[in-house]
Amino acid sequence: MVRKYAKSIDELPSMDELLSVPGLEMMRSIVDGQRAGPPIGETLGFWPVEADEGHVVFEGTPELAVANPLRTVHGGWYGAILDSCMACAVHTTLPQGAGYTTLEYKVNIIRSIPLGVTVQAIGTAQHSGRSTGVANGELRGKDDGKLYATGSTTCMIMRG
Q1: Residue 66 belongs to a domain with what CATH number?
Q2: How remote is the C-alpha of 47 from its chain's centroid?
Q3: Domain limits at 48?
Q4: For the chain, what is the domain count?
Q5: How far does Cα 29 stand from its chain's mean position?
Q6: Residue 117 placed within a domain
Q7: What are the start-end ranges of the H helices in the chain?
Q8: What is the pLDDT of residues 22-70, one digit of tens each?
């Protein structure tokens, strides 16, 4: 798998390009490396590895750059990867011409992720309606399946 991150604003898809294909097609093109992913993934060390309708999986390995003063993974990292997988799960349910944005999300941290441990953030869309989408997420150890955090989100759906 080729992980290609946008290095400039011009490498990100334009709004017209984003709206020209269904959300699932857009997400799969990032997973497959056909389109550049957003630079936040490179900055924070995570990437989408699976995309199906209503289901997206990101993998990430938190390193020293995301540690807090207590030498553990900062809560913002949990939030960023969970927001990404949950919102993208909603994105995969959208038809051509529709977009979305996160309205709110909640994260429940269950245990600390050790630095250097690879996790999977699994987002599942629960509802995708005319104006809102709802999804849940789990953050689990890739190798041992240990649950590190859960999340939920509500996204606003915008139709052209």
Answers
A1: 3.10.129.10
A2: 8
A3: 9-159
A4: 1
A5: 14
A6: yes
A7: 15-19, 23-31, 39-44, 75-91
A8: 999 999 999 999 988 889 999 999 999 999 999 999 999 999 999 999 9
